[in-house]
Design goal:
By secondary structure, the protein is α+β, with helices and mostly antiparallel strands. Helix content is 62%, strand content 15%. The longest helix is centred in the middle third of the chain and has 36 residues. The relative contact order is 0.06. Keywords: Membrane, Transmembrane, Transmembrane helix.
Length: 256
């Protein structure tokens, strides 16, 4: 009986109570202390970036960007500088540095606009010089207000440059393509357009005339009104529009 009671005592789960690990309390305490240290570090880094933003927004943005990249690398790979090896800590620094990157960019734009506004009143020439480096179209609009003569010269220069680019694009256009593009207008002059067949090569006299105009000479085979296949000839001019990459026939004479 005593032996049975002894066995029952051994089998009774209530007789075995789980004792708390002696290391559990110190472990929780260490985590709490570590979390507090991380919060203090975040506060100090944020305060330092805030102070730097007040003195030099560009430098603050660069520092915040570097910190963001380091923390993001650790967050993705789990590796990096010893101070950022924990992903949870890296995530907090990603959020903090990302905020200062965006706010730094806003402050930088505000400071630049204030500088440009002051420069426009005190030194218009320097204002236009700096503005052109930042935004070409904005500079062009401001030039019209500040220096109308220079604006007129710039308009002429841009027009001449655009025309030169247009003519250069036209000179590089294919004569063979001009020959192909005029064929649709040739077919419109025939009695049976669907029967028209064009040789693979254009005729003598086809070429670039200049000013985006091509002269095209060629021949074709097509049915006439009686259903017979006859040979016909055509010559005409067609203009190329590089802005829209389109063609338009200017003159066309079809025989046959």
């Amino acid at each position: 009986m005593a032996d049975f009671v002894s066995r029952g005592a051994i089998m009774n789960p209530k007789s075995h109570k789980t004792e708390p690990s002696p290391d559990a309390t110190p472990s929780i305490l260490r985590r709490y202390v570590h979390f507090q240290v991380v919060l203090i570090e975040l506060a100090l880094v944020g305060y330092a970036l805030h102070l730097l933003q007040g003195t030099n927004a560009s430098a603050q943005t660069l520092v915040a960007t570097a910190l963001f990249l380091i923390a993001m690398f650790t967050l993705i790979t789990g590796r990096g500088l010893p101070h950022f090896r924990r992903r949870s800590k890296a995530l907090l620094f990603v959020l903090l540095s990302g905020f200062f990157v965006m706010s730094g960019a806003v402050v930088f734009d505000q400071e630049r606009e204030a500088h440009l506004a002051e420069l426009r009143e005190t030194d218009p020439v320097s204002y236009l010089t700096e503005l052109r480096e930042i935004d070409e179209e904005r500079w062009f609009a401001a030039l019209q207000e500040i220096d109308p003569d220079a604006y007129a010269q710039e308009v002429e220069h841009r027009a001449a440059e655009a025309e030169a680019q247009r003519l250069d694009a036209c000179s590089k256009a294919s004569v063979s393509l001009a020959y192909v593009m005029i064929q649709s207008d040739v077919k419109n002059r025939l009695r049976a357009p669907s029967t028209a067949k064009f040789p693979g090569r254009y005729g003598t006299g086809t070429g670039y005339l200049g000013n985006c105009i091509f002269q095209v000479v060629g021949s074709f085979d097509a049915q006439n009104g009686f259903g017979a296949i006859i040979r016909g000839d055509f010559h005409g001019t067609i203009e190329y529009y590089p802005e829209t990459q389109s063609w338009r026939t200017q003159a066309l004479e079809v025989q046959g």
